[in-house]
UniProtKB/TrEMBL annotation:
Subcellular location: Cytoplasm
Organism of derivation: Schaalia turicensis
Recorded name of the encoding gene: coaE
Keyword Transmembrane helix: no
The protein, known as: Dephospho-CoA kinase
Lineage: Bacteria, Bacillati, Actinomycetota, Actinomycetes, Actinomycetales
Entry keyword set: ATP-binding, Coenzyme A biosynthesis, Cytoplasm, Kinase, Nucleotide-binding, Transferase
Amino acid sequence: MVKELRVGAASAQQLRTFSYPSGRALRVAVSGGIGAGKSTVTRVLRERGALIADADALAREVTAPGSSVLAQLATDFGSGILNDDGALNRAALAAHIFSNPAARHRLEVLTHPAIIARAREILASAHPGQLAVYDVPLLVETRGDREVDCVMIVSAPEEKRLEHLRGRGMSEADARARMHTQADDEARRALAHIWIHNAGTREDLEKLVAECADRWLVAPQAPASS
Ligand SMILES: CC(C)(COP(=O)(O)OP(=O)(O)OC[C@H]1O[C@@H](n2cnc3c(N)ncnc32)[C@H](O)[C@@H]1O)[C@@H](O)C(=O)NCCC(=O)NCCS
Ligand SMILES: Nc1ncnc2c1ncn2[C@@H]1O[C@H](COP(=O)(O)OP(=O)(O)OP(=O)(O)O)[C@@H](O)[C@H]1O
């Protein structure tokens, strides 16, 4: 039976059951297409005490100045992807890789193993009873579902996603270029335990996620002994 929660126009469905592990933190992946609301969901869980492994932040960490990954990127793509101070020029690299699949593949081969290794370390450091959240945009592509007990996907209508990204200063062309390289919601649904439809206000989403966490992401009570 599918369980469902609603707040305003936002809804959550539990599509599959998952087991709560004993002796360690529950690991939950939060994913979704760019602009769907994944970071908002993660923020609500962080405010409630969850430990977060944020793949976008880890991508920045593993390409920091002085890293071997950044040195290799400069060798492969040329010094045009560096700023004058030697740091990664993110806009230049994004323009290159989101219009060039071979370059994007090379970037992913260089960065993903390091991102996944750091995410594992962080998730393993959560204490039992805490939520350990893996905020990972490319869940399908990197098989992030294998790192966790429960997969939560955030979806939103394409027009709303573009509106969210416009609000964050991203051009429609950049947003669409990134969307086209990512897995679609059908592929995400095949791996989802919890499906969040972010079709209402930001406040609807925030309340819905809090309710979801209270009802679905808590350890089952041990039966009372008589
Ligand atoms: C290309 C880079 C430099 C662009 O940086 P920028 O600051 O503009 O974007 P940021 O890193 O904040 O990512 C924003 C969003 O773009 C999308 N995105 C990022 N990388 C990819 C990718 N390889 N494929 C598809 N979408 C991507 C995701 O939805 C992500 O949430 C950066 O995204 C990067 O280093 N990407 C490679 C590492 C990666 O795959 N990260 C995704 C997490 S596993
Ligand atoms: N239901 C909503 N109504 C209005 N604004 C929203 C809603 N959901 C999210 N937003 C806003 O849209 C923007 C994008 O949302 P968010 O950062 O959570 O998306 P994301 O899926 O994490 O994107 P990315 O993949 O780029 O990290 C944020 O500024 C967020 O506050």
